[in-house]
Specification:
Layout (H helix, E strand, L loop, with lengths): L1 E5 L12 E4 L19 E5 L21 E8 L2 E6 L9 H18 L2
Antiparallel strand pairs: 1-2, 1-3, 3-4, 4-5
Length: 112
């Protein structure tokens, strides 16, 4: 379990805690390149510490510092949502299930 910072002001992170634990098992971590924000890509969860370990063990966790866990990217008339860690892993959904349901609900909410 690794702790990451979540932008709770982002609609896809509505109801989340600012510091949230994610189940992490060799999952992808993203890096936004220069000009990503100008292109509309928005990171809304990322590692903000060289030691994000909350429970379990970690090897090389310092390499995750600054890595992005969740991205909202505009594609055509819609949005692509990228999650690196498993947000529905075993009992962990209690902490991260809102990320899934917010992504499912967001298109309907924006159509109003």
């Amino acid at each position: 379990m690794l702790t990451a910072k979540v932008d709770t002001a982002h609609p896809l992170a509505a109801g989340m805690r600012e510091r949230t634990d994610f189940f992490f098992d060799n999952n992808p971590v993203f890096t936004l390149g220069p000009g990503a924000e100008a292109a509309g890509l928005k990171a809304f969860a990322w590692f903000d510490s060289p030691t994000p370990l909350h429970s379990g063990w970690a090897w090389g966790q310092q390499y995750l510092n600054g890595g992005v866990l969740a991205i909202d990217a505009p594609v055509g008339n819609g949005h692509l949502v990228l999650y690196g860690p498993e947000i529905l892993q075993r009992a962990q959904p209690h902490g991260t299930f809102k990320l899934l349901f917010n992504a499912l609900y967001a298109p309907a909410a924006s159509a109003r």
